[in-house]
Design the sequence.
């Protein structure tokens, strides 16, 4: 069954909401969308998801894929302490894609937009030799309030939200390890990879507690922390025992034949927040994240004057942590 | 020769300009870009260009492709009477693409951005099974000054800039007609398809002369006019003799075995402006476009109360003009 243009239009119509605050000209109405910016700064990010590089249609549902395309962009806005507002979706679809799959994909896009109070204001739909999703997300932040990667100061503590490594575990599972998906740990890992969560509210709490720098963990802690340190002109010391390894990863380690800590340090797509803040602010920020969002905030180390990132284990042994995360420019 | 990540970074570095006005956090510096919006409304558009659907690497240079990806988005901003400000570029590159090709592509992106005083503030670079370019363009317009598709009024004249059909002629040529590319008309057609021009300044002049509606001609006059009429709740009458058929198309008609008028009415990718305005405003707008830009403005018909679009020929015979333009959702 081939997707007809009418079916596609019906799918897109699910996303054409009624008049939304701030939208002057919305989705599918003109050459471009027009939105109000108020007095805020405009925050812009874009991500391209390409079949057989970022996902396989056989291992992620269309709904999860549509939602994930939005969420990974929202996560980038969150990491600037911005509020998501608008999204644009460019999509390429091969002729063999079924209408039901596309409807489900747009349903995932709509659900993720709704969850983050975003309005889809633009799009472009095309045939393509493989499935391509391109999302641009637009957010707002009060002037001077964006939290960049470049503000980390020597003596700051390094904190991360949630736990790490589960998405990489899920990727390892979906890449072919014939694991028992009936196991709760396996389902948790696959879910973490297919249904990431963007920490929007959490990021704004960290900003309010004076986070000096912040980014989202898309490419793995060591890789992303190296970027943050480079942008800030500092080094870092990670207390390996403190790294919050995802519980499901620990439970599945033997079956997956992986080192949970190694995956928590290097695995991509966790979309947790990595931030730096003054030591005296950590406890209160942690308490508020736990109370408001039920999300852990873990102190994993400190910003140092010396360049490079070192890990220190329980015995006090220190060794350089080479960046070993996900390289976007490498085929999976 | 395979493209290395270092070579790719060098290509992108060509686009990392110094501090640009309005850019708070620019390209490659953080999770997202941050820009000032001033008091203006923000205008947003996105276009996805996919290899073997929108272009073939064998028939367009990398420089032209990079520039065209920007220009087709600028054209959408122009059609809202907006001023281009920022762009984001998502790119997917197969492993067989050579570094020199990518450098040339980014050169085209940089040149087109410079021509339109745009700053590239964001991007995403990935491996992909085929070349994919996703551009999001961000513009500004004073509140209430965007010219939409929905304002055409009965009695308005219908005007188009430049001439029509050349890009479709160039596509026909590059699709395999073994034409003599040494002929000036053939080169002109291929150029029109490979190097479209966005009518930014022209659109602002038309807006200043009170254009009641406006859009860019990306999918062919009859298709796009039908959209404008549908959005405005009106019909249209086109004087076929008045349609400004591209001269090169007329010259190549016999060799191409095409009807120049038919291609001027239905061919896509001209990126000329289609606008409606009060009859008394046309002459002055035409004079200013000719004087300032050397660009023709042609009165091709009138907005009518009756629905649908009719063409009237020199003998006064009237016939419905069915939309017959480019359908994005059809493989070439």
Sequence:
């Amino acid at each position: 069954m081939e997707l007809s243009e009418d079916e596609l239009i019906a799918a897109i119509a699910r996303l054409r909401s009624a008049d939304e605050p701030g939208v002057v000209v919305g989705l599918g109405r003109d050459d471009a969308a027009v939105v109000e910016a108020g007095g805020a700064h405009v925050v812009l990010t874009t991500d391209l998801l390409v079949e057989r590089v970022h996902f396989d249609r056989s291992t992620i549902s269309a709904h999860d894929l549509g939602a994930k395309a939005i969420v990974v962009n929202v996560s980038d806005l969150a990491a600037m302490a911005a509020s998501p507002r608008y999204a644009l979706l460019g999509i390429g679809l091969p002729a063999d894609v079924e209408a039901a799959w596309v409807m489900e994909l747009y349903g995932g896009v709509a659900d993720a937009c709704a969850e983050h109070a975003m309005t889809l204001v633009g799009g472009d739909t095309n045939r393509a030799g493989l499935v391509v999703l391109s999302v641009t997300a637009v957010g707002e932040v009060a002037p001077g309030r964006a939290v960049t990667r470049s503000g980390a100061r020597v003596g700051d503590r390094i904190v991360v939200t949630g736990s790490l490594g589960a998405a990489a575990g899920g990727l390892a599972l979906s890449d072919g390890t014939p694991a028992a998906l009936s196991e709760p740990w396996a389902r948790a890992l696959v879910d973490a990879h297919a249904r990431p969560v963007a920490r929007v509210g959490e990021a704004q709490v960290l900003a309010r507690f004076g986070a000096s720098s912040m980014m989202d963990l898309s490419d793995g802690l060591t890789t992303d922390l190296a970027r943050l340190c480079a942008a800030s002109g500092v080094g870092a010391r990670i207390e390996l025992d403190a790294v919050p390894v995802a519980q499901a990863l620990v439970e599945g380690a033997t079956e997956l034949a992986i080192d949970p800590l190694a995956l928590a340090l290097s695995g991509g797509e966790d979309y947790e927040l990595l931030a730096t803040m003054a030591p005296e602010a950590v406890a209160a920020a942690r308490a508020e994240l736990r109370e408001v969002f039920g999300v852990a905030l873990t102190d994993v180390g400190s910003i140092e004057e010396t360049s490079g990132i070192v890990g220190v284990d329980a015995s006090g042994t220190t060794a350089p942590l080479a960046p070993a995360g996900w390289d976007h420019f490498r085929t999976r």
Remarks:
- Chain B has a mean pLDDT of 90.
